[in-house]
Design goal:
Oligomer: single chain
Number of strands: 0
Largest sheet: none
Structural class: mainly alpha
Strand content: under 5%
Number of helices: 14
Order of helices and strands: HHHHHHHHHHHHHH
Helix content: 55-70%
């Protein structure tokens, strides 16, 4: 999907900026791109809020469909005959070379794997379905919803990792979170692409005016000086569990199924929290904010539906059937 990056997207501060670009380029894509940026931005902020305002991980609820809810708030007005245009613009957005485009691209890769193994979602195996109006619309909606589920996982892990690496950005006060992020991003300014630099410069200038007489402005400098990080006991395990959760939900895996798949991947499969099914279930809920719905039925051969996708996501080759 992403053979030759288009470079970063043009910087658009407002919807008017996007509309002006559409007129200049004679291309309606930029208004949709602005809306995609709003969707992704709101999703990241929502996940950050969950971590910042609920200090006890037991109180968090992650990957509960937030991405799809926000998507429908922004794009829910689209008629059935416009959905293919929305999908096309999403695919085009993912081809650009900037942070948000990469998030979208990372979330699309698992869908391509799922299509490869099951023939579900839009792809080469469903071209005939896409040509039939009623079935095609259902396929489009199913693909968009699945993309949203994987976006929930991608943004969840990014925020989970950021919480450990830069806890200064997770103050319960949303304004201090915003200013701390400005400070942390300023430290890496030289390594950022042109889009990220333009965004930071505009955001910094706008925030400086907004917080001109506020003691909160000092948060920017404090964040730049902070070297605090938090202990991260199981980074690899956290990553794979968070990324496997869309598979857990779709195929109704039991915790035993999840444990069997993890045992093929994690370096210490017999250690806590993978040693016992009960420990793994408690860890998912109390540390990662992930809670399974429904009972499910454990696969007898230790290979639940979708396990090939899980292995491929980790760069592993599934064993022969």
């Amino acid at each position: 999907m992403k053979e030759e990056p288009r470079g970063p997207l043009p910087f658009m501060k407002t919807l008017d900026d996007a509309a002006a670009l559409c007129q200049k380029e004679q291309d309606t894509f930029y208004v949709t791109a602005f809306m995609i940026e709003a969707w992704l931005g709101r999703l990241v902020l929502k996940n950050a809020e969950e971590y910042a305002e609920k200090k006890n991980a037991k109180d968090r609820a992650m990957q509960t469909g937030e991405s799809w809810r926000i998507f429908n708030e922004i794009f829910g007005h689209a008629q059935d005959n416009e959905l293919s245009d929305v999908l096309g613009d999403l695919l085009r957005f993912a081809e650009y070379d900037d942070v948000q485009s990469r998030i979208l691209c990372r979330a699309y890769y698992p869908i391509s794997l799922e299509h490869e193994y099951s023939g579900d979602f839009i792809g080469p195996k469903t071209m005939d379905v896409a040509r039939r109006p009623v079935e095609g619309i259902l396929l489009l909606r199913r693909t968009l919803e699945r993309w949203s589920e994987w976006l929930d996982a991608v943004t969840h892990f990014d925020i989970h990792a950021h919480r450990h690496l830069a806890p200064v950005c997770f103050d319960p006060d949303p304004e201090k979170r915003e200013l701390a992020s400005l400070g942390v991003n300023q430290l890496a300014f030289a390594q950022k692409d042109e889009y990220a630099k333009a965004w930071w410069e505009w955001h910094h200038s706008e925030a400086a005016g907004r917080f001109k007489n506020s003691p909160k402005w000092a948060t920017v400098g404090k964040a730049m000086a902070s070297i605090e990080s938090s202990r991260w006991a199981y980074p690899q395990l956290d990553e794979v569990v968070i990324y496997f959760w869309p598979l857990m939900k779709r195929h109704n895996w039991t915790y035993s199924d999840l444990r069997n798949v993890l045992r093929l991947i994690v370096p210490r499969p017999d250690a806590y929290p993978c040693e016992r099914e009960q420990d793994l279930a408690a860890y998912c809920s109390n540390v990662l904010g992930l809670r399974k719905k429904g009972q499910g039925k454990t696969a007898k051969n230790g290979r639940p539906a979708g396990f090939e996708v899980a292995l491929r996501l980790c760069g592993r080759t599934p064993p022969a059937s």
